[in-house]
Design a protein that fits this description.
The protein has about 290 residues and is of the alpha+beta class. The protein has 2 domains: about 200 residues, Homing endonucleases (Endonuclease I-creI), CATH 3.10.28.10; about 80 residues, no CATH class. Helices cover about 60% and strands about 10% of the residues. The longest helix is centred in the last third of the chain and has 27 residues. Bound molecules: zinc ion.
């Protein structure tokens, strides 16, 4: 389930059309950045997803001449091709590859195309219904830190962790960020699936939390608050609030200012604080008073 949702998401992402040249380059760059091996000596893009491999091959062919290579061959570029590809992307000799080259992020769509590329390379996301988790698994700490910083610049808040086997995870555990990120990179169906489960869960949790008895109490509270607000409105619109004793004025002002507050909250807001039943008593007096307004 875990793997297949990731793979379905990647298949969906692989089909996203990218019209601008700048964005196609940013997408390819993301795929390289997250690749199993991204070095001047070798670029190894490891994927089990045929449509992602097809896309990768197409993008590489758009950058360098490699007619003699099959798509499967392109997934493992030897040194001369790796160097040609890097120089066609504008990398200077000796330029550190772990740094995200901002010159390749040209337009706002490039920013997310790059993230989509990284996800296609080394991203996983858990299926709806399990604990929320989306992760980019990087080969080097410096790369992971760089990616986390980049994602933060897109208003996301990823976390960093060290996995076994000298792997570094850049991950999200909150459903909101995950749905957000998936939507931005073009995995709308995956985002929608997660969102649906989340909404369903939230509703179910609320229903479970609020038992029938509590529901009845809640309804009573709402009805009482409505009656109080009506009374306050009547008093205020008649202008007769000045006739009220000082302590009732205070309760009236507080109820008007905090219509949703519970009785204990209102009690605590009085100076000096009074008891809950004190508030209740005063509100009853206000309702009584309003009948003569
Ligand atoms: Zn672009």
């Amino acid at each position: 389930m875990y793997e297949s949702f990731s793979q379905d998401t990647k298949t969906e992402l692989g089909a996203v059309r990218q019209k601008s040249v700048c964005c196609r380059r940013a997408l390819l760059y993301g795929m390289l950045y997250g690749a199993e091996i991204f070095s001047r000596e070798r670029i190894f893009f490891d994927t089990e997803n045929p449509s992602v491999l097809l896309l990768y091959g197409k993008l590489i062919r758009g950058m360098i001449s490699c007619r003699e290579f099959s798509d499967a061959d392109l997934a493992d570029l030897p040194q001369d091709k790796a160097e040609a590809l890097l120089s066609s992307l504008g990398f200077a000799p000796g330029e550190p590859l772990f740094r995200i080259k901002r010159e390749l992020i040209v337009c706002p769509s490039c920013a997310w195309a790059f993230v989509r590329g990284v996800f296609l390379s080394c991203g996983t996301v858990t299926a709806p219904g399990s604990a929320y988790h989306l992760e980019f698994l990087m080969r080097e700490r410096a790369e992971a830190e760089e990616l986390a910083e980049y994602l933060a610049s897109l208003d996301l808040s990823p976390k960093l962790t060290e996995r076994g086997g000298s792997l570094f995870g850049v991950y999200f555990k909150d459903s909101e960020s995950i749905v957000d990120l998936l939507g931005h990179i073009g995995a709308n169906r995956a985002a929608f699936d997660l969102l649906n489960v989340k909404i369903y869960r939230d509703i179910r949790n609320n229903v479970n939390r609020v038992s029938n008895c509590e529901l009845a109490n809640l309804e009573k509270t709402v009805a009482a608050a409505n009656e109080q607000m009506k009374a306050i409105e009547a008093i205020l619109s008649s202008g007769r609030e000045k006739e009220l004793p000082e302590e009732l004025r205070q309760t009236l002002d507080l109820r008007a200012a905090f219509p949703d507050a519970t009785l204990s909250e209102l009690a605590g807001r009085h100076t000096p604080p009074i008891t809950k039943s004190g508030v209740n008593h005063r509100l009853k007096r206000l309702i009584e008073f309003s009948k003569h307004c």
